[in-house]
Design goal:
Blueprint: H1 3-28, H2 31-45, E1 47-56, E2 60-67, E3 70-77, E4 94-100, E5 108-109, H3 140-163, H4 174-177
Antiparallel strand pairs: 1-2, 1-4, 2-3, 4-5
C-alpha cells in the first residue's frame, strides 16, 4: 500500500477514536451538569451587560437585554441556585447585570455558582414603622441624620454646580479662560 493511504487510514482511525471518547465523556454528563458547565463557561469567558428583570417566580427569572442593537428576551432556571440569590425571587426586579457569550449573545446568565448579577432587594419598610407611642418613627435620630446629610449634600451640589460650566465640567482657571 502507498504511504499516503496508510497515513489517511491512520488519521481516520485516530479521529474515530477521539470522537468515540468525546461521546462517552459527554454521555456521562447529566443535563444538570451540562447546564452548570454552560453557566460557569459564560461566567469565565462571557461579556458583562445590563438587563431588565421583567418577571420572577419561584424557580425562573425572566429578563430582557440588548446587545449590538438586537433585543433579546431570556429566562433562567434558578431552582439549583436558590442559595446564591440576594433575597426572595419575588422581591427582585429592575435593572440587573448579566453575562453573555460573545459568539452567541442569546446565551446569557444572571446568576451562577461563582457570580451573581442580581442586586439586593431594598430593605423592608418596617424600618420607618411608627413606634409604640405612634407619634414618630422608631428611628427618629436616623431620619434626622439622613435629613441633615441630605441638606448638606444639596448645598454642596449647588456650590459645585455654580462653579461648573453648565456641561458638568469644572470651569478652567480664570487666567486660561480670559484669552490673549
Amino acid at each position: 500500500m502507498p504511504l499516503g493511504v496508510i497515513t489517511g487510514l491512520a488519521c481516520m482511525a485516530g479521529g474515530a477514536a477521539l470522537l468515540a471518547m468525546w461521546r462517552a465523556v459527554r454521555a456521562r454528563l447529566s443535563p444538570e451538569k451540562r447546564e452548570q458547565r454552560r453557566r460557569l463557561d459564560i461566567n469565565l469567558n462571557g461579556r458583562l451587560g445590563d438587563a431588565l428583570l421583567t418577571e420572577c417566580d419561584e424557580n425562573t427569572l425572566y429578563y430582557t437585554y440588548q446587545v449590538r442593537g438586537v433585543h433579546y428576551t431570556a429566562s433562567q432556571d434558578i431552582s439549583a441556585l436558590r442559595d446564591h440569590l440576594p433575597g426572595a425571587p419575588e422581591r427582585l426586579g429592575g435593572m440587573v447585570n448579566m453575562k453573555y457569550a460573545a459568539q452567541n449573545p442569546a446565551n446569557s446568565i444572571l446568576v451562577c455558582e461563582e457570580w451573581s448579577g442580581l442586586r439586593a432587594a431594598p430593605p423592608a419598610a418596617e424600618a420607618n414603622a411608627p413606634s409604640a407611642s405612634g407619634n414618630e418613627p422608631a428611628n427618629s435620630t436616623a431620619s434626622a441624620n439622613s435629613t441633615a446629610s441630605t441638606n448638606s449634600t444639596a448645598s454642596a451640589n449647588s456650590t459645585a454646580s455654580a462653579n461648573s460650566n453648565g456641561v458638568g465640567h469644572q470651569a478652567q482657571d480664570s487666567t486660561l479662560t480670559q484669552g490673549s
